[in-house]
Amino acid sequence: MSTRRRPLVRVLIGVLVGMLVLGVGLAGGAWALTRPTDTVGAVNFTRPLAVPPLAPSRLDDRGRRVFDLVAQEGSRDFHGDGRATATAGFDGGFLGPTLRAKRGEQVQVNVVNRLSEDTNVHWHGMHLPARMDGGPHQLVRPGATWSPTWRVSQPAATLWYHPHPHGATEEQVYRGLAGMFILDDDREAALPLPRTYGVDDVPVIVQDRSFSGSGKFDKTRNAFAGIGVLGDTLLVNGTIGPYLDVRTERVRLRLLNASTARTYDFGFSDDRPFALIGTDGGLLDRTARLTRVRLSPGERAEVVVDVRPAERVILRSTPPDLGIGGLSRRSAGGADRFDVLQLRAADTLTPAPPAPDDLVPTDRLDPGSAVTTRRMEFKGRGINGRSVQMDRIDFAVTRGATEVWEVVNSDGTPHNFHVHDVQFQLVSVAGAAPPPELAGWKDTVFLPPHRPMRIVLRFADHSDPNLPYMYHCHLLWHEDSGMMGQFVVVDPGQAPGRPPTHSGHGDHD
Ligand code: C2O
Ligand code: CU
Ligand code: CU
Protein backbone atom coordinates (compact mmCIF):
# COMPACT_ATOMS: atom_id res chain seq x y z
CA MET A 1 0.00 0.00 0.00
CA SER A 2 2.64 2.47 1.07
CA THR A 3 4.60 1.98 -2.13
CA ARG A 4 1.51 2.72 -4.15
CA ARG A 5 0.79 5.89 -2.18
CA ARG A 6 4.18 7.39 -2.71
CA PRO A 7 3.64 8.84 -6.17
CA LEU A 8 0.38 10.43 -4.97
CA VAL A 9 2.11 11.95 -1.94
CA ARG A 10 4.83 13.23 -4.20
CA VAL A 11 2.31 14.76 -6.53
CA LEU A 12 0.50 16.35 -3.60
CA ILE A 13 3.73 17.74 -2.18
CA GLY A 14 4.65 18.95 -5.61
CA VAL A 15 1.31 20.71 -5.99
CA LEU A 16 1.61 22.25 -2.53
CA VAL A 17 5.13 23.48 -3.17
CA GLY A 18 4.00 24.79 -6.53
CA MET A 19 1.11 26.65 -4.96
CA LEU A 20 3.39 28.04 -2.29
CA VAL A 21 5.91 29.24 -4.86
CA LEU A 22 3.13 30.71 -6.97
CA GLY A 23 1.56 32.36 -3.93
CA VAL A 24 4.82 33.84 -2.74
CA GLY A 25 5.54 34.89 -6.30
CA LEU A 26 2.17 36.57 -6.70
CA ALA A 27 2.40 38.30 -3.34
CA GLY A 28 5.96 39.36 -4.14
CA GLY A 29 4.83 40.55 -7.54
CA ALA A 30 1.97 42.50 -6.03
CA TRP A 31 4.32 43.96 -3.44
CA ALA A 32 6.76 44.96 -6.20
CA LEU A 33 4.02 46.34 -8.46
CA THR A 34 2.77 48.48 -5.64
CA ARG A 35 6.24 49.77 -4.82
CA PRO A 36 5.71 53.12 -3.13
CA THR A 37 6.17 56.21 -5.23
CA ASP A 38 8.74 58.48 -3.62
CA THR A 39 9.78 61.76 -5.21
CA VAL A 40 11.35 63.29 -2.10
CA GLY A 41 14.71 64.76 -3.07
CA ALA A 42 14.11 63.82 -6.71
CA VAL A 43 12.13 66.80 -7.96
CA ASN A 44 13.98 69.56 -9.79
CA PHE A 45 12.18 72.76 -8.94
CA THR A 46 12.93 74.55 -12.17
CA ARG A 47 9.61 76.13 -13.14
CA PRO A 48 7.86 79.07 -11.57
CA LEU A 49 4.51 77.98 -10.18
CA ALA A 50 1.75 78.87 -12.64
CA VAL A 51 -0.92 80.92 -10.90
CA PRO A 52 -4.37 80.57 -12.48
CA PRO A 53 -5.48 84.00 -13.69
CA LEU A 54 -8.45 85.61 -11.96
CA ALA A 55 -11.45 85.22 -14.26
CA PRO A 56 -12.57 88.55 -15.66
CA SER A 57 -16.15 89.47 -14.82
CA ARG A 58 -18.58 92.29 -15.57
CA LEU A 59 -21.64 93.65 -13.82
CA ASP A 60 -24.74 93.37 -16.00
CA ASP A 61 -27.66 95.82 -15.96
CA ARG A 62 -29.28 93.85 -13.15
CA GLY A 63 -26.17 94.13 -11.01
CA ARG A 64 -25.12 90.52 -11.47
CA ARG A 65 -21.47 89.58 -11.62
CA VAL A 66 -21.16 87.68 -14.90
CA PHE A 67 -18.34 85.30 -15.83
CA ASP A 68 -17.73 83.38 -19.02
CA LEU A 69 -16.19 79.95 -18.87
CA VAL A 70 -15.39 77.98 -22.00
CA ALA A 71 -14.68 74.26 -21.71
CA GLN A 72 -12.27 73.38 -24.47
CA GLU A 73 -9.74 70.84 -25.64
CA GLY A 74 -6.06 71.69 -25.61
CA SER A 75 -2.57 70.36 -25.46
CA ARG A 76 0.27 71.09 -23.11
CA ASP A 77 4.00 70.38 -23.01
CA PHE A 78 4.23 69.76 -19.27
CA HIS A 79 7.87 68.64 -19.31
CA GLY A 80 9.15 71.36 -21.64
CA ASP A 81 10.75 68.76 -23.90
CA GLY A 82 8.47 69.00 -26.91
CA ARG A 83 6.16 66.12 -25.97
CA ALA A 84 2.54 67.25 -26.18
CA THR A 85 -0.13 65.95 -23.83
CA ALA A 86 -3.76 66.07 -24.98
CA THR A 87 -5.63 68.02 -22.30
CA ALA A 88 -8.78 70.01 -21.62
CA GLY A 89 -9.38 73.16 -19.65
CA PHE A 90 -11.55 76.20 -19.14
CA ASP A 91 -10.58 79.27 -21.17
CA GLY A 92 -7.29 77.52 -21.91
CA GLY A 93 -5.66 74.16 -22.31
CA PHE A 94 -5.45 72.96 -18.72
CA LEU A 95 -7.36 73.85 -15.53
CA GLY A 96 -9.27 77.12 -15.50
CA PRO A 97 -9.19 80.67 -14.17
CA THR A 98 -9.99 81.41 -10.53
CA LEU A 99 -13.52 82.72 -10.10
CA ARG A 100 -13.95 85.16 -7.26
CA ALA A 101 -17.11 86.67 -5.79
CA LYS A 102 -18.28 88.27 -2.59
CA ARG A 103 -20.93 87.14 -0.17
CA GLY A 104 -24.23 88.77 -1.10
CA GLU A 105 -23.42 89.09 -4.79
CA GLN A 106 -25.60 87.56 -7.47
CA VAL A 107 -23.31 85.71 -9.85
CA GLN A 108 -23.93 84.22 -13.26
CA VAL A 109 -21.53 81.98 -15.14
CA ASN A 110 -22.01 81.42 -18.85
CA VAL A 111 -20.59 77.96 -19.37
CA VAL A 112 -19.86 77.26 -23.03
CA ASN A 113 -19.16 73.68 -24.06
CA ARG A 114 -16.62 73.56 -26.89
CA LEU A 115 -15.72 69.95 -26.18
CA SER A 116 -16.90 67.19 -28.48
CA GLU A 117 -18.84 65.52 -25.67
CA ASP A 118 -21.38 66.43 -22.98
CA THR A 119 -20.01 68.20 -19.96
CA ASN A 120 -21.24 70.44 -17.15
CA VAL A 121 -19.75 72.43 -14.29
CA HIS A 122 -20.45 71.72 -10.65
CA TRP A 123 -19.69 74.40 -8.06
CA HIS A 124 -18.18 72.21 -5.39
CA GLY A 125 -18.97 73.53 -1.90
CA MET A 126 -21.46 76.15 -3.07
CA HIS A 127 -24.84 76.59 -1.45
CA LEU A 128 -27.29 77.12 -4.31
CA PRO A 129 -30.51 75.82 -5.90
CA ALA A 130 -30.30 72.30 -7.32
CA ARG A 131 -30.90 73.46 -10.89
CA MET A 132 -27.81 75.71 -10.67
CA ASP A 133 -25.62 73.04 -9.06
CA GLY A 134 -24.13 71.58 -12.23
CA GLY A 135 -24.72 67.99 -11.20
CA PRO A 136 -25.35 65.16 -13.64
CA HIS A 137 -28.86 66.48 -14.38
CA GLN A 138 -27.52 69.72 -15.85
CA LEU A 139 -25.67 68.41 -18.87
CA VAL A 140 -24.39 70.89 -21.41
CA ARG A 141 -24.36 69.50 -24.94
CA PRO A 142 -21.43 70.23 -27.28
CA GLY A 143 -21.86 73.74 -28.64
CA ALA A 144 -24.41 74.70 -26.01
CA THR A 145 -24.24 77.35 -23.29
CA TRP A 146 -25.59 76.96 -19.77
CA SER A 147 -25.98 80.05 -17.59
CA PRO A 148 -26.63 79.26 -13.95
CA THR A 149 -27.14 82.21 -11.61
CA TRP A 150 -27.36 82.35 -7.82
CA ARG A 151 -26.75 84.61 -4.87
CA VAL A 152 -23.62 83.89 -2.85
CA SER A 153 -24.95 83.36 0.65
CA GLN A 154 -22.17 81.69 2.57
CA PRO A 155 -18.93 82.68 4.30
CA ALA A 156 -15.59 83.39 2.62
CA ALA A 157 -14.09 80.09 1.48
CA THR A 158 -11.94 78.27 -1.02
CA LEU A 159 -14.32 76.34 -3.27
CA TRP A 160 -13.73 74.83 -6.67
CA TYR A 161 -15.47 73.81 -9.84
CA HIS A 162 -15.27 70.77 -12.07
CA PRO A 163 -17.41 68.75 -14.52
CA HIS A 164 -19.85 66.19 -13.13
CA PRO A 165 -21.37 64.22 -16.05
CA HIS A 166 -22.34 60.83 -14.71
CA GLY A 167 -19.75 58.22 -15.66
CA ALA A 168 -17.27 60.70 -17.16
CA THR A 169 -16.26 62.86 -14.21
CA GLU A 170 -12.94 61.11 -13.59
CA GLU A 171 -12.00 61.29 -17.27
CA GLN A 172 -12.84 64.98 -17.66
CA VAL A 173 -11.20 66.11 -14.44
CA TYR A 174 -8.15 64.03 -15.29
CA ARG A 175 -7.81 65.81 -18.62
CA GLY A 176 -7.67 69.10 -16.77
CA LEU A 177 -11.17 70.46 -16.31
CA ALA A 178 -11.12 72.04 -12.85
CA GLY A 179 -10.57 75.42 -11.25
CA MET A 180 -10.79 77.35 -7.99
CA PHE A 181 -13.71 79.51 -6.84
CA ILE A 182 -12.82 81.90 -4.03
CA LEU A 183 -15.52 83.54 -1.96
CA ASP A 184 -14.86 86.70 0.04
CA ASP A 185 -16.73 88.37 2.87
CA ASP A 186 -16.31 91.24 5.35
CA ARG A 187 -15.35 89.05 8.27
CA GLU A 188 -12.45 87.53 6.42
CA ALA A 189 -11.45 90.95 5.06
CA ALA A 190 -11.23 92.34 8.59
CA LEU A 191 -8.61 89.82 9.69
CA PRO A 192 -4.87 90.38 9.36
CA LEU A 193 -4.33 87.61 6.82
CA PRO A 194 -2.30 87.58 3.61
CA ARG A 195 -4.68 88.23 0.73
CA THR A 196 -2.82 89.51 -2.32
CA TYR A 197 -3.75 86.96 -4.94
CA GLY A 198 -0.80 85.24 -6.53
CA VAL A 199 1.67 87.06 -4.27
CA ASP A 200 1.07 86.07 -0.64
CA ASP A 201 -2.26 84.30 -1.16
CA VAL A 202 -1.72 81.52 -3.63
CA PRO A 203 -3.87 78.69 -5.02
CA VAL A 204 -2.11 75.33 -4.79
CA ILE A 205 -4.08 72.86 -6.90
CA VAL A 206 -2.44 69.46 -6.51
CA GLN A 207 -3.01 66.65 -8.99
CA ASP A 208 -1.15 63.43 -9.66
CA ARG A 209 -0.62 62.17 -13.18
CA SER A 210 1.39 59.57 -15.05
CA PHE A 211 2.78 60.15 -18.50
CA SER A 212 3.45 57.67 -21.26
CA GLY A 213 6.76 57.72 -23.14
CA SER A 214 5.22 59.93 -25.81
CA GLY A 215 4.03 62.35 -23.14
CA LYS A 216 0.34 61.43 -23.09
CA PHE A 217 -1.55 61.17 -19.83
CA ASP A 218 -1.35 57.51 -18.90
CA LYS A 219 -4.48 56.43 -17.10
CA THR A 220 -3.67 52.72 -17.02
CA ARG A 221 -4.74 51.34 -13.69
CA ASN A 222 -2.51 48.86 -12.00
CA ALA A 223 -4.36 45.65 -11.20
CA PHE A 224 -4.31 46.33 -7.48
CA ALA A 225 -5.58 49.88 -7.56
CA GLY A 226 -9.02 49.45 -6.11
CA ILE A 227 -9.28 53.17 -5.62
CA GLY A 228 -8.64 54.47 -9.12
CA VAL A 229 -5.67 55.92 -10.94
CA LEU A 230 -2.64 56.98 -8.92
CA GLY A 231 0.00 58.97 -10.77
CA ASP A 232 3.71 59.21 -10.05
CA THR A 233 4.15 62.86 -11.05
CA LEU A 234 2.61 65.87 -9.35
CA LEU A 235 1.21 68.88 -11.14
CA VAL A 236 0.66 71.98 -9.04
CA ASN A 237 -1.60 74.41 -10.90
CA GLY A 238 -0.48 72.38 -13.91
CA THR A 239 3.24 72.92 -13.23
CA ILE A 240 5.74 70.08 -12.84
CA GLY A 241 8.61 70.87 -10.46
CA PRO A 242 7.23 74.25 -9.34
CA TYR A 243 8.80 76.90 -7.14
CA LEU A 244 7.16 79.97 -5.67
CA ASP A 245 9.10 83.16 -5.00
CA VAL A 246 8.02 84.44 -1.60
CA ARG A 247 8.60 88.11 -0.76
CA THR A 248 6.62 88.35 2.48
CA GLU A 249 7.30 86.88 5.91
CA ARG A 250 4.15 84.80 5.65
CA VAL A 251 2.34 83.22 2.79
CA ARG A 252 -1.17 81.83 2.60
CA LEU A 253 -1.58 78.68 0.55
CA ARG A 254 -5.02 77.57 -0.57
CA LEU A 255 -4.45 73.84 -0.86
CA LEU A 256 -6.90 71.99 -3.08
CA ASN A 257 -6.63 68.27 -3.64
CA ALA A 258 -8.00 68.09 -7.18
CA SER A 259 -6.63 64.59 -7.74
CA THR A 260 -9.03 61.88 -8.81
CA ALA A 261 -8.06 59.26 -6.21
CA ARG A 262 -4.98 60.22 -4.22
CA THR A 263 -4.96 61.37 -0.61
CA TYR A 264 -2.08 63.56 0.61
CA ASP A 265 -0.67 64.48 3.97
CA PHE A 266 0.73 67.96 3.47
CA GLY A 267 3.45 69.49 5.59
CA PHE A 268 6.88 71.05 5.16
CA SER A 269 10.28 69.49 4.59
CA ASP A 270 11.56 70.59 8.02
CA ASP A 271 8.30 69.75 9.79
CA ARG A 272 7.76 73.40 10.69
CA PRO A 273 4.35 74.12 12.13
CA PHE A 274 1.91 76.12 10.03
CA ALA A 275 -1.34 77.87 10.81
CA LEU A 276 -4.40 76.06 9.52
CA ILE A 277 -6.93 78.85 9.17
CA GLY A 278 -9.64 77.35 7.01
CA THR A 279 -11.15 74.18 5.64
CA ASP A 280 -13.67 73.37 2.88
CA GLY A 281 -16.43 75.79 3.86
CA GLY A 282 -14.46 78.69 5.29
CA LEU A 283 -12.33 79.98 8.12
CA LEU A 284 -12.07 78.09 11.40
CA ASP A 285 -13.14 79.50 14.77
CA ARG A 286 -9.55 79.41 15.88
CA THR A 287 -6.27 78.92 14.10
CA ALA A 288 -4.90 75.40 14.54
CA ARG A 289 -1.08 75.11 14.66
CA LEU A 290 -0.27 71.85 12.93
CA THR A 291 2.60 70.17 11.13
CA ARG A 292 0.47 68.05 8.78
CA VAL A 293 -2.92 68.20 7.18
CA ARG A 294 -4.44 65.27 5.36
CA LEU A 295 -6.53 66.03 2.28
CA SER A 296 -8.51 63.44 0.35
CA PRO A 297 -9.82 64.20 -3.16
CA GLY A 298 -11.97 67.34 -3.18
CA GLU A 299 -10.91 68.66 0.24
CA ARG A 300 -9.32 72.07 0.78
CA ALA A 301 -7.19 73.65 3.49
CA GLU A 302 -6.03 77.23 3.88
CA VAL A 303 -2.68 77.42 5.62
CA VAL A 304 -0.41 80.32 6.53
CA VAL A 305 3.27 79.46 6.74
CA ASP A 306 6.17 81.54 8.04
CA VAL A 307 9.33 81.81 5.97
CA ARG A 308 12.77 83.16 6.84
CA PRO A 309 14.85 85.37 4.54
CA ALA A 310 16.71 83.56 1.75
CA GLU A 311 15.59 80.09 2.76
CA ARG A 312 14.13 77.33 0.65
CA VAL A 313 11.55 75.07 2.14
CA ILE A 314 9.50 72.41 0.41
CA LEU A 315 5.81 71.68 0.71
CA ARG A 316 5.84 67.92 0.97
CA SER A 317 3.30 65.11 1.18
CA THR A 318 4.30 62.32 3.54
CA PRO A 319 2.54 58.93 3.68
CA PRO A 320 -1.07 59.66 4.63
CA ASP A 321 -2.72 57.61 7.32
CA LEU A 322 -5.42 55.83 5.34
CA GLY A 323 -6.51 53.68 8.25
CA ILE A 324 -5.39 50.48 6.51
CA GLY A 325 -2.25 48.36 6.44
CA GLY A 326 -0.17 46.07 4.26
CA LEU A 327 -0.74 45.63 0.58
CA SER A 328 -4.00 47.60 0.55
CA ARG A 329 -2.26 50.56 2.15
CA ARG A 330 0.45 50.47 -0.50
CA SER A 331 -1.93 50.04 -3.42
CA ALA A 332 -4.00 52.98 -2.15
CA GLY A 333 -0.94 55.27 -2.08
CA GLY A 334 -0.57 55.08 1.69
CA ALA A 335 3.19 54.65 1.49
CA ASP A 336 3.89 57.32 -1.14
CA ARG A 337 5.84 60.55 -0.61
CA PHE A 338 6.04 63.60 -2.82
CA ASP A 339 7.91 66.83 -2.96
CA VAL A 340 5.17 69.24 -4.00
CA LEU A 341 6.28 72.86 -4.19
CA GLN A 342 9.44 74.73 -3.28
CA LEU A 343 9.08 78.05 -1.49
CA ARG A 344 12.00 80.37 -2.27
CA ALA A 345 12.19 83.23 0.17
CA ALA A 346 13.71 86.53 -0.96
CA ASP A 347 16.73 87.95 0.92
CA THR A 348 14.54 90.63 2.44
CA LEU A 349 10.96 89.91 3.27
CA THR A 350 8.08 92.34 3.70
CA PRO A 351 6.87 92.14 7.31
CA ALA A 352 3.53 90.40 7.81
CA PRO A 353 1.63 89.78 11.05
CA PRO A 354 1.22 86.23 12.34
CA ALA A 355 -2.14 84.58 11.69
CA PRO A 356 -4.47 85.62 14.51
CA ASP A 357 -5.54 82.96 17.02
CA ASP A 358 -9.18 83.88 16.73
CA LEU A 359 -10.70 83.85 13.28
CA VAL A 360 -14.47 83.81 12.76
CA PRO A 361 -16.98 82.45 15.24
CA THR A 362 -18.68 79.42 13.69
CA ASP A 363 -22.41 78.98 14.24
CA ARG A 364 -22.55 75.50 15.67
CA LEU A 365 -25.30 73.28 14.34
CA ASP A 366 -27.06 71.43 17.12
CA PRO A 367 -27.23 67.66 16.50
CA GLY A 368 -29.84 67.56 19.28
CA SER A 369 -32.25 69.44 17.04
CA ALA A 370 -31.96 66.90 14.21
CA VAL A 371 -35.31 65.60 13.02
CA THR A 372 -33.80 62.59 11.24
CA THR A 373 -30.73 60.41 11.53
CA ARG A 374 -29.68 58.67 8.34
CA ARG A 375 -27.09 55.96 8.04
CA MET A 376 -24.99 55.67 4.91
CA GLU A 377 -22.75 52.71 4.40
CA PHE A 378 -20.06 52.99 1.73
CA LYS A 379 -19.17 49.55 0.47
CA GLY A 380 -18.21 48.00 -2.85
CA ARG A 381 -19.45 50.36 -5.55
CA GLY A 382 -22.53 51.59 -3.78
CA ILE A 383 -24.05 53.31 -0.79
CA ASN A 384 -26.36 51.22 1.41
CA GLY A 385 -26.03 48.45 -1.14
CA ARG A 386 -27.30 50.53 -4.05
CA SER A 387 -25.65 52.09 -7.06
CA VAL A 388 -26.85 55.51 -8.13
CA GLN A 389 -29.74 55.57 -10.55
CA MET A 390 -30.35 58.83 -12.32
CA ASP A 391 -34.13 58.48 -12.13
CA ARG A 392 -34.26 57.41 -8.48
CA ILE A 393 -34.41 59.88 -5.62
CA ASP A 394 -32.93 58.17 -2.60
CA PHE A 395 -34.52 60.38 0.02
CA ALA A 396 -36.11 63.76 0.61
CA VAL A 397 -35.03 66.32 3.18
CA THR A 398 -37.49 68.94 4.40
CA ARG A 399 -36.49 72.54 3.88
CA GLY A 400 -35.55 74.03 7.22
CA ALA A 401 -34.56 70.70 8.74
CA THR A 402 -31.42 69.82 10.62
CA GLU A 403 -30.33 66.22 10.10
CA VAL A 404 -27.64 63.92 11.42
CA TRP A 405 -26.02 61.52 8.98
CA GLU A 406 -23.87 58.66 10.14
CA VAL A 407 -21.50 57.84 7.33
CA VAL A 408 -19.34 54.74 7.48
CA ASN A 409 -16.89 53.07 5.16
CA SER A 410 -17.33 49.32 5.60
CA ASP A 411 -14.71 48.42 2.99
CA GLY A 412 -11.04 47.63 3.34
CA THR A 413 -10.24 50.46 0.92
CA PRO A 414 -10.43 54.21 1.43
CA HIS A 415 -13.45 56.25 0.43
CA ASN A 416 -14.52 59.77 1.20
CA PHE A 417 -17.84 61.49 1.53
CA HIS A 418 -19.02 64.62 -0.25
CA VAL A 419 -22.44 66.22 -0.25
CA HIS A 420 -23.75 68.97 -2.50
CA ASP A 421 -25.72 72.07 -1.43
CA VAL A 422 -24.61 72.43 2.18
CA GLN A 423 -21.55 72.59 4.36
CA PHE A 424 -21.70 70.28 7.35
CA GLN A 425 -20.08 69.96 10.75
CA LEU A 426 -18.62 66.82 12.25
CA VAL A 427 -20.21 65.66 15.46
CA SER A 428 -17.85 62.76 16.03
CA VAL A 429 -15.24 60.57 14.40
CA ALA A 430 -15.52 56.96 15.61
CA GLY A 431 -17.22 58.30 18.72
CA ALA A 432 -14.57 60.92 19.55
CA ALA A 433 -14.63 64.69 19.12
CA PRO A 434 -13.28 65.75 15.71
CA PRO A 435 -9.68 67.03 15.53
CA PRO A 436 -9.24 70.78 14.78
CA GLU A 437 -8.83 70.23 11.03
CA LEU A 438 -12.25 68.57 10.95
CA ALA A 439 -13.97 70.91 13.39
CA GLY A 440 -14.94 73.63 10.92
CA TRP A 441 -17.25 73.75 7.91
CA LYS A 442 -16.71 70.77 5.63
CA ASP A 443 -18.27 69.46 2.43
CA THR A 444 -15.91 66.52 1.94
CA VAL A 445 -14.39 64.23 4.53
CA PHE A 446 -12.07 61.26 4.35
CA LEU A 447 -13.62 57.97 5.46
CA PRO A 448 -11.05 55.59 6.86
CA PRO A 449 -12.48 52.05 6.98
CA HIS A 450 -14.71 51.24 9.93
CA ARG A 451 -14.55 54.66 11.60
CA PRO A 452 -18.08 56.07 11.50
CA MET A 453 -18.42 59.82 11.05
CA ARG A 454 -21.43 61.57 12.49
CA ILE A 455 -22.16 64.81 10.73
CA VAL A 456 -24.82 67.45 11.21
CA LEU A 457 -26.31 69.34 8.28
CA ARG A 458 -28.93 72.06 7.94
CA PHE A 459 -30.99 72.54 4.79
CA ALA A 460 -32.15 76.10 5.28
CA ASP A 461 -33.51 76.89 1.81
CA HIS A 462 -33.56 76.03 -1.92
CA SER A 463 -36.22 73.39 -2.27
CA ASP A 464 -37.05 71.56 -5.49
CA PRO A 465 -38.96 68.28 -5.37
CA ASN A 466 -37.75 67.10 -8.77
CA LEU A 467 -34.12 68.07 -9.11
CA PRO A 468 -31.79 66.22 -6.79
CA TYR A 469 -28.47 67.06 -5.21
CA MET A 470 -25.77 64.41 -5.10
CA TYR A 471 -23.85 62.81 -2.27
CA HIS A 472 -21.01 60.52 -3.17
CA CYS A 473 -17.49 59.24 -2.79
CA HIS A 474 -15.15 61.87 -4.28
CA LEU A 475 -12.69 59.23 -5.46
CA LEU A 476 -13.92 59.91 -8.95
CA TRP A 477 -13.67 56.39 -10.30
CA HIS A 478 -15.87 55.21 -7.43
CA GLU A 479 -18.30 58.04 -8.07
CA ASP A 480 -18.44 57.20 -11.78
CA SER A 481 -18.95 53.51 -10.95
CA GLY A 482 -22.06 54.32 -8.94
CA MET A 483 -20.98 55.17 -5.40
CA MET A 484 -23.38 58.10 -5.36
CA GLY A 485 -26.92 58.90 -4.30
CA GLN A 486 -29.48 61.63 -4.92
CA PHE A 487 -31.63 63.59 -2.50
CA VAL A 488 -34.11 66.39 -2.95
CA VAL A 489 -35.01 69.23 -0.61
CA VAL A 490 -38.80 69.58 -0.42
CA ASP A 491 -41.07 72.14 1.21
CA PRO A 492 -42.73 70.99 4.43
CA GLY A 493 -45.49 68.55 3.52
CA GLN A 494 -44.37 68.27 -0.10
CA ALA A 495 -43.73 64.87 -1.68
CA PRO A 496 -40.56 64.18 -3.68
CA GLY A 497 -41.12 64.18 -7.43
CA ARG A 498 -39.14 62.62 -10.23
CA PRO A 499 -35.93 63.77 -11.86
CA PRO A 500 -36.52 64.76 -15.48
CA THR A 501 -35.71 61.90 -17.85
CA HIS A 502 -33.51 63.89 -20.15
CA SER A 503 -32.05 66.82 -18.38
CA GLY A 504 -29.74 68.50 -20.79
CA HIS A 505 -29.07 72.00 -21.95
CA GLY A 506 -29.22 72.20 -25.72
CA ASP A 507 -28.66 75.04 -28.12
CA HIS A 508 -31.80 76.88 -27.09
CA ASP A 509 -31.17 76.95 -23.38
CU1 C2O B 1 -16.74 67.87 -6.35
CU2 C2O B 1 -20.30 66.00 -6.62
O1 C2O B 1 -18.45 66.90 -6.55
CU1 CU C 1 -19.81 69.01 -4.91
CU1 CU D 1 -14.73 55.51 -2.74
Structural summary, described in words:
The chain is mainly beta and 509 residues long. The chain has 3 domains: 47-186, Immunoglobulin-like; 201-350, Cupredoxins -  blue copper proteins (Immunoglobulin-like, Sandwich), CATH 2.60.40.420; 367-490, Cupredoxins -  blue copper proteins (Immunoglobulin-like). 11% of the residues lie in helices and 38% in strands. It contains 5 helices and 34 strands. The protein has helices at 2-33, 169-175, 186-189, 326-331, 476-480, and strands at 47-48, 57-59, 65-76, 85-90, 99-102, 106-113, 122-124, 139-140, 145-146, 149-151, 157-162, 179-184, 201-209, 233-236, 242-248, 250-257, 264-268, 274-279, 282-290, 293-295, 300-306, 312-317, 338-350, 372-379, 382-383, 395-398, 402-409, 415-419, 425-429, 444-447, 453-458, 464-472, 484-490, 504-505. Strands 1-15-23-22-17-20 form a 6-stranded mixed β-sheet, with no helix packed on it. Strands 2, 3, 4, 6, 9 and 10 form a 6-stranded mixed β-sheet that branches. A 6-stranded mixed β-sheet has the order 14-13-16-21-18-19, with no helix packed on it. A hairpin with a 2-residue loop joins strand 18 and strand 19. It is globular and about 95 Å long. The termini are far apart. The structure holds CU-O-CU linkage and copper (II) ion (2 copies). Residues 122, 124, 418, 420 line the site of one copper (II) ion. One copper (II) ion binds at residues 415, 473, 475, 478, 483.
